[in-house]
Amino acid sequence: MDHLVFAAPDLDEGVRHIETHLGIATSPGGRHAGYGTKNRLVGLGPKSYMEVVGVDLDQPEPNRERWFGLDTLNAPRLVTWCVAVSDLNDLIVRAKLVGLDLGESKKGSRRREGGALLEWQMTDPWAERAGGIIPFFIDWG
């Protein structure tokens, strides 16, 4: 597992929920430019984390609905999880062979608070996958 995605209509509300119910603090994440979202992070181990993601009202309205159902989400909740892979396109092809449509590969990025740009490829984050039971996949390059 690469990470869990905990989404909230309001990021501050999501952070309060995590801190109150789990008793752990979040760390700065960054903004997903063009997606209308921002996040904070919780380390879960050396290679896993929880992303707390919410709407970023300081960004212009995105061209499509925000990922992870944020535009229709009424309360903070765990929405999905993510698995890291080293060859995303191969995984997409192999999944189709067994009847699982992961969607097309999409580019993603986030600007860290310090200004550094983090980029990746992922399966379609807008695709509905059995209510979040089936993960989306990410290739950090």
Q: Could you explain how this protein is built, in words?
A:
There is one protein chain. The two termini are 16 Å apart. The protein has two helices and eight strands. It is 16% helix and 39% strand. The longest helix has 12 residues, at 11-22. It has a single domain (3-139), classed as 2,3-Dihydroxybiphenyl 1,2-Dioxygenase, domain 1 (Roll), CATH 3.10.180.10. The model has no long low-confidence stretch (mean pLDDT 93). The chain has 141 residues and is an alpha+beta fold. The chain is globular, with a radius of gyration of 15 Å.
- The number of domains is 1
Spatial gap, N to C terminus? 16 Å
SS element count, helices: 2
Name the helicity range.
Answer: 10-25%
What's the overall geometry? Answer: globular
Looking at the overall shape, the CATH architecture is: Roll
Largest sheet: 8 strands, mixed, barrel
How is the CATH topology named? 2,3-Dihydroxybiphenyl 1,2-Dioxygenase, domain 1
| CATH classification class | Alpha Beta
Q: Strand share of the residues?
A: 35-45%
The CATH superfamily label reads 2,3-Dihydroxybiphenyl 1,2-Dioxygenase, domain 1
Helix-strand sequence: EHEEEEHEEE
Taking all Cα atoms into account, the compactness measure Rg is 15 Å
Could you outline the blueprint of secondary structure elements for this entry?
Blueprint lengths: L2 E8 H12 L4 E6 L4 E7 L5 E7 L21 E8 L3 H10 L7 E8 L4 E7 L12 E4 L2
Parallel strand pairs: 1-4, 5-8
Antiparallel strand pairs: 1-5, 2-3, 2-6, 3-4, 6-7, 7-8
